[in-house]
UniProtKB/TrEMBL annotation:
Pfam families: AAT. It comes from Halorubrum halodurans. Residues 132-332 form the Peptidase C45 hydrolase domain. This is Peptidase C45 hydrolase domain-containing protein. It comes from the Archaea. InterPro entries: C45_proenzyme-like, Peptidase_C45, Peptidase_C45_hydrolase.
């Protein structure tokens, strides 16, 4: 598709939000409409979900005043109602309770057709022992609703009171989903669904947690936002450090399962690998069962099998693996399934390879097979 637009944000949280909102006003409004239409298509009471989001305004202000101020700035700069901007930032936390309310009201059983849509994605991490250049890589293909691709951008935060950050986000969302900070801490995220999602109405939103991960100066503090408090719903968060550490956190509402690299390679997709919780998403998207394992094999082929590089993994090998089309359209490089209604069309909206040692992102907006990666350095 295209390069990412890059926006440098400085000043106070409110000033950063205003700049974000003014630059991407049309994209913020488009995101709101895309989510409203998709959730309505899934049978959710969107007005009730919006009311829940309105209640989250005060909650976010209490949990993270800076995040709330930046969110208010986006609303001010874009002219989009604060409640709708909040809905974007807490969409995971409001969709699952709304979905539970719908299914309980209709007395439906949990079936493949009765699960909410979830961000796709295939993520990875590679340790220095398995790379040709001795660096640590993290990144992913970020798969989601096709129209969202046009609203993605790279935000660069330059701050005196917190680390500088380079991260991909959606227009209107304060917390970066995939990125790196000046201390070499990087993050990639995947959607997950467990049977307990949505049972609790108010807990710290994931996008606030993602920002806190990238606000950390130390690795233990980067893990803390995912671990320290319970969550409304599930998500997978892969956190890496330039010095060669990688940990994958499968987070359910009240449990976190940890996964470590094998032979220097770590991959994840959209199902729980622990049997301690009910993993649901594979009912709706069976490709999750092969995407992560296939990506792991493609990367492991570049090493001699014990974690030490024969030739070793480099960024070019990672990019080639992220372009893999086995199972297309439900492939690592995901494409629109034309058999589905247009409102359900999804694809790889962004592909990112992050060199944590150099604090550098190689990124492509849209399916990675469609063009070349572009370099963005912090």
């Amino acid at each position: 598709m295209a390069e990412f637009e890059r926006l440098v944000l400085t000043g106070t949280p409110r000033e950063r939000g205003i700049e974000h909102g003014e630059r991407f006003a049309e994209a913020v409004a488009a995101n709101v409409e895309t989510y409203r239409e998709r959730f309505a298509h899934e049978g959710v009471d969107v007005d009730a979900m919006r009311e829940h989001a309105a209640e989250y305004v005060e909650y976010v202000e209490r949990e993270s005043p800076d995040y709330a101020a930046e969110m208010r700035g986006i609303a001010e700069g874009s002219g989009v109602d604060l409640v709708d901007v909040t809905m974007l930032n807490v969409r995971w936390e409001v969709i699952y309770p709304a979905w539970k309310a719908r299914t309980e009201a209709e007395n439906e059983a949990a079936t493949a057709e009765a699960e909410p849509p979830v961000d796709g994605c295939t993520s990875f991490g590679v340790m220095p022992c398995a790379t040709t250049d001795g660096t640590t890589y993290v990144g992913q293909n970020w798969d989601w609703l096709a129209p969202i691709a046009d609203t993605l951008f790279l935000m660069e935060l330059r701050r005196d009171d917190a680390p500088d950050v380079l991260a991909m986000t959606e227009a209107g969302i304060v917390g970066g989903k995939v990125g790196v900070n000046e201390h070499g801490i990087g993050i990639a995220v995947n959607g997950l669904i467990s049977g307990d999602d949505g049972s609790e109405g108010f807990r710290k939103p994931y996008h606030v947690r993602f920002r806190e991960v990238l606000d950390a100066e130390r690795y233990d503090d980067a893990l803390r936002p995912i671990l320290e408090t319970d969550r409304v719903c599930s998500a997978n968060v892969l956190v890496g450090h330039a010095d060669g550490e990688l940990i994958d956190l499968e987070a359910a509402p009240e449990l976190v399962n940890t996964i470590y690299p094998e032979e220097g390679v770590l991959t994840h997709s959209n199902h729980f690998e622990t049997d301690a919780v009910e993993s649901v998403n594979e009912r709706r998207g069976p490709s999750t069962l092969y995407r992560a394992e296939r990506l792991r094999r493609l990367l492991a082929e570049e090493t001699d099998g014990d974690g030490a590089g024969a030739d070793g993994v480099d960024s070019a090998a990672i990019r080639d693996a992220l372009r893999d089309h086995f199972g297309r359209p439900a492939s690592i490089c995901s494409h629109v399934d034309e058999s589905l209604p247009e409102i359900e069309h999804g694809q790889t909206n962004a592909s990112l390879v992050i060199d944590l040692q150099e604090r550098r992102i190689l990124g492509q907006r849209g399916p990675p097979c469609a063009g070349e990666y572009h370099e963005y350095a912090l």
